[in-house]
Write a structure and sequence with these properties.
460 residues; Rossmann fold; 5-stranded parallel beta sheet; binds nicotinamide-adenine-dinucleotide; NAD; Aminoacid_DH-like_N_sf; oxidoreductase; Glu/Leu/Phe/Val/Trp_DH_C
């Protein structure tokens, strides 16, 4: 294998043509799957220096293989609502890549879910899971079911119907789903119960994000949000900066957002915003976590009701305005493509120093270009939000040895894993000629391990 100095312009040209050819084929083969195209483009382009330096990946058809899911399952999910009316949703599970371990990735219940969304999330998950250093492959799933406004009984009937099909495709050594948007502890509980009833076995390692009383891991709820903050802390440290005394803008008010707010606040930052799909809160005194948790985790209400408890805070309709609040650090933790080029420019002109992606693909490709062109510290999702799946893998480990570790122990492991991911991404970026570029670093570091395992295992 050559060194960077030996890479010629011809090598780079061959690598570019390879990437472009496979990308065009992906677009033709998967028409109108825009989110999937977006993530494929971002990852493929980062890998050009790898193919220029190591052409054996081209000879082994790695891109053609890695971009085609090993399996995509779609299924009917019929259920009956509280009025006795029959409803039908569509279920998905993409089992994308099992080169380094059983498929692992969350389930999303949201009306926007379709094959493109599930494939973009599943493709990202391959590289993210590889970055954690744990033996987990890439998968993702979900349904276009909208949990908003549904009763607990409706959620249960839907979850039971969903699992009545999914159970035949998963297993502790096959595929281990977890939560994502719209799937939290309540839904995981219903899914677990139905799996256990159908299979007649107690396999704790079949799902992660379980309740603490039946095989869940301490610190799993906090892991994605805490992990994103630990990752950003490393980025800041390298520049002599820290969370202490900084102003932070967070979007979303779900699982990732709440615990990103909690950890950033513990580290001495003032978090002044949070949002939901209707609008956002600006609280100049710092978001009150007790109120937020009560509203979102217990009462499941809209974020607008925050101002009833804190009249000094302001509520604004619409989601994009959150990026107009001046801040030192922005943590997008809601959903994909929530920061576009315009929002990125506003953040930059207001003096943002660092972005940490808690959500998956929250920045458009154009927004990422704005951040990189302006030398803003940028922690891409597959690295910054890998803490959730990392602790899910720790939950699997605890389940298989039938032990539970203390909160402090899991949190310390999470912290260590996030520091390791940061260092590996920085090193890969450096090795391939893009010092400090964590987008390139994360994609390359995640890719190499999976690609090498695929080559070792032959054409399968
Ligand atoms: N839960 C995890 O462990 C985990 C791990 C890695 C990545 N993620 C990603 O983090 C993001 C959030 O997931 P979550 O688990 O917190 O989900 P969640 O359902 O708990 O919360 C999502 C939040 O985003 C809000 N929201 C939805 N659309 C919005 C919009 N357009 N603008 C502002 N707010 C909006 C919702 O109201 C909700 O408060 C997703 O992109 C998910 O894929 C989650």
């Amino acid at each position: 294998m050559g060194t960077l100095q030996e890479v010629t312009q011809d090598d780079v040209q061959v690598a570019k043509e390879y990437v472009s050819e496979v990308y065009q084929a992906v677009k033709e083969r998967n028409p109108i799957e825009n989110e999937f195209h977006q993530t494929v483009k971002e990852i493929f382009e980062s890998l050009i220096p790898v193919f220029a330096k190591h052409p054996h990946y081209i000879d082994n058809g790695i891109l053609e293989r890695i971009v085609e899911p090993e399996r995509l399952i779609t299924f009917r999910v019929p259920w009956v609502d509280d009025q006795g009316k029959v409803k039908v949703n569509r279920g998905f599970r993409v089992q994308f890549n099992s080169a380094i371990g059983p498929y692992k990735g969350g389930l999303r219940f949201h009306p926007t879910v379709n094959a493109s969304i599930i494939k973009f999330l599943g493709f990202e998950q391959i590289f993210k899971n590889s970055l954690t250093g744990q033996p987990i492959g890439g998968g993702k799933g979900g349904s276009d079911f909208d949990p908003k406004g549904k009763s607990d009984a409706e959620i249960m009937r839907f979850a039971q119907s969903f699992m009545s099909e999914l159970y035949r495709h998963i297993g502790p050594d096959i595929d281990v789903p977890a939560g994502d948007i719209g799937v939290g502890a309540r839904e995981i509980g219903f899914l677990f119960g139905q799996y256990k009833k159908i299979r007649g076995v107690y396999e704790a390692g079949i799902l992660t994000g379980k309740g603490l009383g039946y095989g869940g891991s301490l610190a799993r709820t906090e892991a994605t949000g805490y992990g994103a903050v630990y990752f950003v802390e490393e980025m800041l440290k390298d520049k002599g900066l820290s969370f202490k005394g900084s102003t932070v803008v967070v979007s979303g008010s779900g699982n990732v957002s709440i615990y990103a707010i909690e950890k950033a606040t513990q580290l001495g930052a003032k978090v002044v915003t949070c949002s939901d799909s209707n609008g956002y809160i600006y609280d100049p005194n710092g978001i009150n976590l007790d109120t937020l948790k009560k509203l979102k985790e217990i009462e499941r209400k809209r974020i607008s009701e925050y101002v009833d408890v804190h009249p000094e805070a302001e509520y604004y309709e619409g989601t994009s305005g959150v990026w107009s609040i001046p801040c030192d650090i922005a943590l997008p933790c809601a959903t994909q493509n929530e920061i576009d080029e315009t929002a990125a420019n506003v953040l930059v002109s207001n003096g943002v120093k660092a972005i940490g992606e808690g959500a998956n693909m929250p920045s458009t490709l154009e927004a990422i270009d704005v951040f990189l062109a302006n030398d803003i510290l940028f922690g891409p999702a597959k690295a910054a939000n890998a803490g959730g799946v990392a602790v899910s893998a720790l939950e699997m480990a605890q389940n298989s040895i039938r032990l539970s570790w203390a909160f402090e122990e899991v949190d310390a492991k999470l912290h260590q894993i996030m520091e390791g991911i940061y260092r590996n991404c920085m090193k890969a970026a450096d090795d391939y000629g893009y010092p400090g570029n964590l987008v390139v670093g994360a994609n390359i570091a995640g890719f190499l391990k999976v690609a090498d395992a695929m080559i070792d295992q032959g054409i399968i």
